[in-house]
Structures are given as C-alpha cells and as structure tokens.
Amino acid sequence: MEAAMLYVVTDFDGTLMREDVGDTIMYALGVMQEEGTRKAVRLMNSGQSGSKAWIELAYPYLKGKKAEVDRILEEVRPRDGAAEFLAFCRQHGIPVTILSDGMAYYIEELVKRHGLVVQQVVVNPIRYLEDGGYHVGAENRNPACDWCGCCKAGTVRQLKASGGQVIYVGDGSSDILGSGFADWIFARSTLARHLEEQGEAYFPFETFHDILKVVAPRVEQFQDGTAQGKRTQPNTFCRF
C-alpha cells in the first residue's frame, strides 16, 4: 500500500527562528507598555480571550514603525540547523508549512532574507502596504471559534483530512492547539512543559539538528506512519 504523504508543520517565532521575533519587536518598540497591550495580556492570562484579542489590541501600535521593525529584523536569525532540515525535507519530498500566530510582514521578510524555502506560509495578514498604509487582520476564519488569531488547529486538520501524516514542531502556547491534531510532536519551552504535564508523547529539541537526528534515520517509518513516538491522547481542549 502506498504511504500517505508526510507533512511538516513548524511554528516560526522561537521555533524556526532563534528569537520570538514578535515579542522582540513588541518589547524593543515599547508596545508592551501600552495600555491596549497590557489589557490584552490581562485578558489572555485570565483565560477570557485568546490571541485574536492580542492581535486586535497590540498590533495597531506598530503602525508607522516599519523602519524600526526593519532594523530589528537585521538582528534575528534562524535556529541552528533550520536550513539543513528544510533541505532534507525538499530532498525527500516532504512539504513544509510555516504556521504562525505572528505578523505576516516580518515572517515573509525573514523567509525571503534567509532563503527559507517552504511550501506555504500560514500567518495573520498584518502588513505594511506599498502605498504606506498598514493592515491588521487575523487569519482565523473558523466559524466555530474566534479564540486564536491564526487557527493552527485548522491548518493541521486540513492536512490530516487529506490522509497525510503530520510532524509538528513548536514551542509556544498557540502550538498546544495546533500540535493537538498532529501525529508526532517536536517541542521545546512552553509546549514541551505542557506536554510533559499532560503525559503526552513528544520529542524534545533545541536545534533542528536534534530533529534531523530523529527523523533522518527513520524517514521511511515517518512516511508510512509506523515511527514510534506518536501522540497518544485525543484533543479535548481545542474549541473546534
């Protein structure tokens, strides 16, 4: 029987990139001190809202600050091993999706700047426009839930619906939702701590070299779905 397509879905901030680029921008430009941003943090920390409220309240403060954002982008770098991992995926016909609850402008700029070749980028449509304007929007069009800005779970579910197997790579709280529908998870930071607390299976990583050490020797097993280390618990926390 022909093996199902294997997909890789990777978060961007703090995962594909060494830094959380969005947070770096917000702190450097003083956005974290603005009242709207503080309100968004309070709502999220109290469980009253998700990242969509953060986008609506915090990202408007970046209007007119393209030059400052561009200067920050000069200082951030991909995580060690990212280029090698993406090359490995291309060589083995494994489509890679960048899936981020961040800002399209800086993600698209950094993908281009660092030659990060992927099949698709799914991200919130927040951009500086050619006419000098600025657009803030959310990727999420899920009629069942408007909790997240970018519905990571929705993208992973679409890949799974095609009959594919999904490797998910992430680090943050939004990745808890996206990885909940994947087959295998590579996790660090907040995501790893959550999975550890839940007793869920995952592979720890700090660099993409760590991920290659797991995937490369067993790529055929990942492709046919027999690789060990699959997540074991049903997703009961996503608001689908």
Structure in words:
This protein is about 40% helix and about 15% strand. The two termini are about 30 Å apart. It contains 12 helices and 8 strands. Strand 4 and strand 5 form a beta hairpin. It has helices spanning about 10-15, 20-30, 35-45, 50-60, 65-75, 80-90, 105-115, 150-160, 175-180, 190-200, 210-215, 220-225, and strands spanning about 5-10, 95-105, 120-125, 125-130, 135, 165-170, 185, 205. The protein has 2 domains: about 5-20 and about 75-225, Rossmann fold (3-Layer(aba) Sandwich); about 20-75, no CATH class.
Could you give a short description of this structure?
By secondary structure, this protein is an alpha/beta fold. Helix content is 42%, strand content 14%.
SSE layout:
Layout: E1 6-10, H1 12-16, H2 21-28, H3 35-45, H4 51-58, H5 66-73, H6 82-91, E2 96-103, H7 104-113, E3 120-124, E4 127-128, E5 134-135, H8 152-161, E6 165-170, H9 174-179, E7 184-187, H10 189-198, E8 203-204, H11 208-215, H12 219-224
Helix pairs in contact: 3-4, 6-11
Task: Please tell me what the overall shape is.
Answer: globular
Low-confidence stretches: none
CATH architectural designation of the largest domain: 3-Layer(aba) Sandwich
What is the count of DSSP helices, taking H or I runs of 4+ residues?
12
Category from helices, strands and their pairing:
alpha/beta
Beta-strand portion reads 5-15%
Spatial strand order of the main sheet: 3-2-1-6-7-8
How confident is the prediction overall: mean pLDDT?
94
The number of domains is 2
Straight-line distance between termini:
32 Å
CATH fold group of the largest domain: Rossmann fold
